[in-house]
Amino acid sequence: MTTLFYHDDAQPELLKAKRIAILGYGSQGHAHALNLRDSGHDVRVGLRPESGSVHKAEEAGLRVLPISDACAEADVIMVLVPDTEQKRTYDQEIAPQLSAGKCLLFAHGFNIRFNLISPPPDVDVAMIAPKGPGHLVRRTYVDGAGVPALVAVHHDATGQAHALALAYADAIGATRAGVLETTFAEETETDLFGEQVVLCGGVTALVRAGYETLVEAGYQPESAYFECLHELKLIVDLMYEEGITGMRYSVSDTAEYGDLTRGSRVITDAVKGEMKKILTEIQDGTFAAEWIEENEIGRPRYRELREAGKRHPIEQIGTTLRAMMPFVSAGRQKVSEASGGDTD
Ligand code: NAD
Ligand code: MG
What residues pair up with 77 in beta bridges, in sequence order? Predict the structure, then answer.
């Protein structure tokens, strides 16, 4: 059964009695720390002393401590350092400070789902995973709205893990939008599947294959870019606002007939079979093992593929065309400056 929680379901006072540590001050970390503080909670930020974020967090009026000191003080610890750094941070700085009744929170289930982190049984382990980037978690909160989130309990040592997680979701604004009950396994597996098959991997491969097909057939790269990349946002916005049926209502009948008769020739049963294989690799831990190993050896394949991606002709033509449409990326960080992040 689907369960969604809203503001009236939360007990904010449960969290008022707790000392909270936010570990990391990146995309999610800054948003959680500031929203919790503005909701009247007792927040400290745990950072490595040499971190460039120390100054930013202090400028925002937050108290900053080394990670292990923040964990020692806190009853509730939210782990918002990068997923690939969480195991090391946990082993060296969090675990020694855990004691019975503390609550360990995550915003993504990867490290718990794949057993990289195994907290002791007398500690609560739960998840509040906002379904949006950190800057939106902050901006919507300030605007009186919120980003939806997922809630899951991995281990309930105190009998209060769920209520505490929900109070946390309330404090960052998520109960204004809806908090969906899930499990660490469902959140982790669907998140990885979505980004690999549809949101990132699927969509970039589709766009590039369409672009290459047009350019190889002799059409102008500019035409191919506008058709296969630029317009995608306009179509996706319609799907986001009105669903697939609503998008089909807005495009021409010719476009709709082409969609209805050709789409399944592109995304064939064989493609769907590959999606199932990718899902199996996520579920059985093959992907996680590969990504952990890649990190252990310094990410050679990751770097090589990322550089090859940057050299694709669609990137050059896109840079030229977007320079003529400054409104397209107005107010946004340049890709070269962005730190990366998550899709949800
Ligand atoms: P991020 O990369 O933006 O920020 C991580 C922060 O951790 C850094 O800013 C720094 O303050 C600190 N840090 C970096 N390296 C560190 C290290 N080696 N040791 C200790 N601290 C270090 O990360 P993020 O995108 O905010 O992700 C944090 C968590 O939130 C992850 O579990 C991620 O899956 C989850 N999440 C992210 C998003 C998103 O939109 N970015 C959405 C939902 C969930
Ligand atoms: Mg995601």
Answer: 21, 104
